[in-house]
């Protein structure tokens, strides 16, 4: 590869020593896997077995061994099969397998959770390639894994110079830093590998090996084209002969992508202590605004950015003028480590009062409540309830997304996982039995917290809806 003849336009983005350095975006239309990957679910009596794990298991929500020190649990409701993969109690990924009527196709939604709780969701279509359809157990059989048809991931990768090697980061995980010396370095992203090693094959190709417990999990070759504008990534896992090929184009990030802080002295707005994060996703540029108003009440807003305002020539200041003379001046902040807590956890922090008029429960409690206050911190919650008979009750419990926790008093385990920036799924199980399942979500303006789902009472599933309004 002759990097000396590259146009000057790319001189700063493409150091002659390493053409990999820069920002790249996935061209999803060119992704292919050869030979096609297959998924097999077999059944022997009460036990099942999948092609990617050696241990048989039951659809009973209990933990069973999986590959590379992971555990998995499975549950089923009609044509829906749900599996959760964990390691050391932390959720790595979940699969929701929806078998279509007729049993010939399945829609599979995969959610992958980063070490800081961020979640990316993708969807694939599976087609049956073997096994007779059993209407009573339609996922049993052999399936061809189709390409990703939908994803919330931006597909953007960034490689930065780092000594005699590079640092890799994405918008969903902290990545790794390693030298081109074949030695193992920590993989900060966690997940299915705890270490990474880099080896330069030639001037345009770098080989990356991801390891878990000292053993190779996957090998990826990154090859930059001669003109420096295309990168081809070829990946192969240790337990499969299939090679996935992905093509990336050199990319310029949206000027508004990054972290911005409100300059209150130059602004005229009700917002205080506000931070604005712009993140590129596959469907556009999303914004996440977190702050408070002049009374100290929290403000959290998210959505697809319409990119209002004027950005300065140096790209470090954005001025947004609104109605009634409002002005917000945002100043770019240095890229900082991703928050240790996911945003879905942050937006729940505060004091909430239950709206008893909008809340309901299919199985009403024995005592009627007159006031319920829920106080939430990043690590715990306290619920204080006053009853019509003049009595009161207070209960406190630990919180934590992505880590299965044991209920106080031996009431089984509870697992909460972020579905996106505002929604959380809560699942409780006791001795392999699902005892409650709910979703909670925070409104777009950050001032309403809603729980809806069911819990088990006296042998039946009782549905409920609980609505809280933010107090502060």
SSE topology:
Elements: E1 22-34, E2 38-44, E3 47-50, E4 64-65, E5 71-77, E6 80-87, E7 90-99, E8 105-113, E9 119-130, E10 141-151, E11 156-161, E12 165-170, E13 176-179, E14 185-186, E15 195-202, E16 205-212, E17 215-224, E18 230-237, E19 243-250, E20 258-262, E21 272-281, E22 284-292, E23 298-304, E24 310-311, E25 317-321, E26 327-332, H1 343-346, E27 350-354, E28 360-361, E29 369-376, E30 380-387, E31 392-398, E32 405-406, E33 413-418, E34 423-430, E35 433-442, E36 448-457, E37 460-470
Antiparallel strand pairs: 1-11, 1-19, 2-3, 2-10, 4-5, 5-6, 6-7, 7-8, 8-9, 9-10, 11-12, 12-13, 14-15, 15-16, 16-17, 17-18, 18-19, 20-21, 20-26, 21-22, 22-23, 24-25, 25-26, 27-29, 27-37, 28-37, 29-30, 30-31, 32-33, 33-34, 34-35, 35-36, 36-37
């Amino acid at each position: 590869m002759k990097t000396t003849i590259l146009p000057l336009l790319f001189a700063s983005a493409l150091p002659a020593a390493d053409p990999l350095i820069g920002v790249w975006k996935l061209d999803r239309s060119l992704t292919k896997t050869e030979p096609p990957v297959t998924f097999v679910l077999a059944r022997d009596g009460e036990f099942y077995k999948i092609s990617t794990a050696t241990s048989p298991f039951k659809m009973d929500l209990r933990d069973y061994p999986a590959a590379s020190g992971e555990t998995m649990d499975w549950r089923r409701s009609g044509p829906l099969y749900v599996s959760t993969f964990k390691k050391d109690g932390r959720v790595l990924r979940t699969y929701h397998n929806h078998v279509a009527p007729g049993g010939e196709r399945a829609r599979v939604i995969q959610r992958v959770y980063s070490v800081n709780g961020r979640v990316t969701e993708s969807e694939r279509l599976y087609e049956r390639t073997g096994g007779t359809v059993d209407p009573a157990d339609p996922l049993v059989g052999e399936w061809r894994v189709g390409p990703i048809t939908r994803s919330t991931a931006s597909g953007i990768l960034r490689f930065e110079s780092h000594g005699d090697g590079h640092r890799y980061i994405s918008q969903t995980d902290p990545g790794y830093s390693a030298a081109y010396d074949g030695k193992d370095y920590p993989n900060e992203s966690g997940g299915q590998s705890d270490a990474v090693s880099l080896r330069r094959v030639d001037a345009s190709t770098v080989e990356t090996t991801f390891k878990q417990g000292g053993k190779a999990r996957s090998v990826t070759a990154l090859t930059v084209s001669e003109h420096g504008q295309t990168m081809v990534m070829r990946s192969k896992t240790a337990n499969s002969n299939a090679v996935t090929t992905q093509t990336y184009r050199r990319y310029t990030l949206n000027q508004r992508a990054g972290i911005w802080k409100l300059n209150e002295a130059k602004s005229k707005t009700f917002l205080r202590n506000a931070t604005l994060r712009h993140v590129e996703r596959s469907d556009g540029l999303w914004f996440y605004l977190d702050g408070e108003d002049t009374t100290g009440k929290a403000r959290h807003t998210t959505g697809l950015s319409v990119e209002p305002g004027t950005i300065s020539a140096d790209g470090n200041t954005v001025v947004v003028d609104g109605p009634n003379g409002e002005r917000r001046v945002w100043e770019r902040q240095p890229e900082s480590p991703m928050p240790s807590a996911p945003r879905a956890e942050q937006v729940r922090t505060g004091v909430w009062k239950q709206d008893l008029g909008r809340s309901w429960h299919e199985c009403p409690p024995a005592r009627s409540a007159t006031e319920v206050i829920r106080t939430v911190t990043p690590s715990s919650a306290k619920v204080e309830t006053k009853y019509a008979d003049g009595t009161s009750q207070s209960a406190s419990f630990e919180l934590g997304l992505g880590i299965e926790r044991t209920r106080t008093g031996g009431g089984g385990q509870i697992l909460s996982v972020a579905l996106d920036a505002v929604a959380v799924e809560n699942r409780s199980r006791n001795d392999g039995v699902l005892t409650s399942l709910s979703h909670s979500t925070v409104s777009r303006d950050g001032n309403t917290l809603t729980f809806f789902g069911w819990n088990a009472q006296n042998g039946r599933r009782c549905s409920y809806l609980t609505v809280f309004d933010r107090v502060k």
